[in-house]
Design brief:
124 residues, mainly alpha
Length: 124
């Protein structure tokens, strides 16, 4: 599922996934993991920009693979899909397309962080 950049915060993350994760881990652990998630995504955005700037397709592949995994754990389907697509592009010799899509991935990642922070703020 590809979600447009204008998608609402509610469409960026699957609340059912987060709710189940929250119920499984409990409030304190979920919030700790959430802090790690937001830090990791922020670091991956920075690393992705640097890898694209260096035209390093193997690093773009590694970063987008890691980004897809982290996003998938937190129900961020649009980000997961975009990152997986870029990973596959790097693996199949379509580096230029992966590089071109990096800005969109970064934008989606930032929007996902906003949506996740809104979810955290709404917790009891």
């Amino acid at each position: 599922m590809i979600i447009s950049p204008s998608a609402s915060a509610a469409e960026r993350i699957d609340r059912a996934v987060l709710d189940e994760f929250y119920d499984t881990t409990g409030d304190e652990v979920f919030r700790e993991i959430g802090v790690t998630f937001t830090e990791q995504i922020s670091l991956l955005i920075t690393a992705l920009k640097a890898a694209v700037g260096a035209q390093d397709s193997s690093e773009v592949e590694r970063i987008t693979h890691e980004l897809a995994g982290a996003a998938g754990t937190f129900g961020a389907d649009a980000l997961t899909d975009r990152a997986r697509n870029a990973t596959e592009m790097c693996r199949t010799g379509q580096e230029a397309a992966a590089f071109a899509g990096a800005a969109d991935i970064c934008m989606e990642a930032r929007a996902t962080l906003v949506a996740f922070k809104a979810y955290l703020a709404a917790l009891p």
